[in-house]
Design brief:
Number of helices: 12
Distance between the termini: 23 Å
Strand content: 5-15%
Bound molecules: phosphoric acid mono(formamide)ester, norvaline
CATH architecture of the largest domain: 3-Layer(aba) Sandwich
Radius of gyration: 19 Å
Shape: globular
CATH superfamily of the largest domain: Aspartate/ornithine carbamoyltransferase
Strand order of the largest sheet: 7-6-5-8-9
Number of strands: 9
Order of helices and strands: HEHEHEHEHEHEHEHEHHEHH
Largest sheet: 5 strands, parallel
Helix content: 40-55%
CATH topology of the largest domain: Rossmann fold
Number of domains: 2
CATH class of the largest domain: Alpha Beta
């Protein structure tokens, strides 16, 4: 018989939507990680927990991991996910985002949205009466940070005091790693070329969050200096979705930020390698690093499923928890 694990009464997030990393309290983060660990430990658990629940998934940009993990997450818990391809027209072009939000609220139980403009997800959440989850915007990728820190928690036991270096472009993934890392007590050291630093307001916000947990947010331009003494080195593509037009120029600007065996040895012998994927092998990371035993990239990808199942359970089934 398929095991069905009941969720406990007190498990209730402080939020209805996950739009930005800062929305989650440290108690929320602990709750998601604990539930994700239970989901992962017992395959087939919660198999009927979302019976009858429907999720609309709006994607303006391509996706492998996010789309599949949300869809598998829903169906494996008895629910259903509807994929809404929105690359053309983008959200808000055929009708207002307000009307999309109000229509979907009458038919489904939750919305997952991947957009260019962060404001589009904010507007969806403001106008929907159902939970809205950010599946990546130009500004943030909170579900990614959840999967990544869950992966590091599995690897190192505890996150507090850990040091992570992000090398490359100060982009959406970098922003989410700084914000969620700061909440979890993880020091995040970011190395970018000049002009590609993370947004100043996100850096200030992450620094302020870090003051409460002891985490430091540090910016560098020298990747060797940034990775020294860290337990994890993270990189991402040099041109994010929507920046393909600048990919050639960026390849030249970022060349000395490649995560290769030399950089990994500057970090330390036991330092793990992380990447949100998709990766451009031979650009931001070499095959030797991504395929090495210290690479956790497929664990990160797998854990997206477990943390998002936990998130769906907590957001779509509040009466059960
Ligand atoms: N890491 C990530 O979000 O992958 P996708 O773009 O394939 O969803
Ligand atoms: N920074 C990348 C992340 C992809 C998951 C992008 O936005 O394309």
């Amino acid at each position: 018989m398929t095991p069905v694990i009941a969720m406990e009464k007190q498990e209730q997030l402080s939020i209805r939507d996950l739009v930005a990393d800062q929305d989650l309290t440290t108690a929320d983060l602990a709750m998601i990680f604990e539930l994700a660990a239970r989901v992962k430990a017992v395959p087939g658990s919660f198999s009927h927990a979302l019976a009858g629940k429907q999720l609309a998934m709006i994607f303006e940009k391509p996706s492998l991991r996010t789309r599949v993990t949300f869809e598998v997450g829903m169906t494996s818990m008895g629910g259903y996910a509807i994929y809404l391809e929105h690359s053309k027209p983008r959200l808000g072009e055929r009708e207002s985002i307000k009307d999309v939000a109000r229509n979907l609220s009458r038919w489904v139980d939750g919305i997952v949205a991947r957009t260019f403009a962060h404001q589009a997800v904010v507007e969806l959440a403001e106008n929907a009466s159902i939970p809205v989850i950010n599946a990546l915007t130009d500004l943030l990728h909170p579900c990614q940070a959840l999967g990544d820190y869950f992966t590091l928690r599995e690897k190192f036991g505890s996150l507090k005091g850990l040091k992570l270096a992000f090398v490359g472009d100060g982009n959406n993934v970098c922003h989410s790693l700084m914000l969620t890392g700061a909440k979890l007590g993880v020091t995040v050291r970011v190395a970018t070329p000049y002009g590609f630093e993370p947004k100043a307001e996100i850096v200030s916000e992450a620094k302020a969050l870090g003051r409460e947990t002891g985490a430091k947010i540090q910016l560098f331009h020298d990747p060797v200096e940034a990775v020294a003494g860290t337990q994890a080195v993270y990189t991402d593509v040099w041109a994010s979705m929507g920046q393909e037009y600048a990919a050639h120029l960026r390849t030249q600007v970022f060349a000395s930020y490649q995560v290769n065996e030399n950089l990994m040895s500057a970090a330390g012998p036991d330092t793990v390698f992380l990447h949100c994927l998709p990766a451009h092998r031979g650009s931001e990371v070499t095959d030797a690093v991504i395929d090495s035993p210290t690479s956790l990239v497929y664990d990160q990808a797998e854990n997206r499923l477990h943390v998002q199942k936990a998130l769906l359970l907590l957001l779509l089934q509040p009466q059960r928890v």
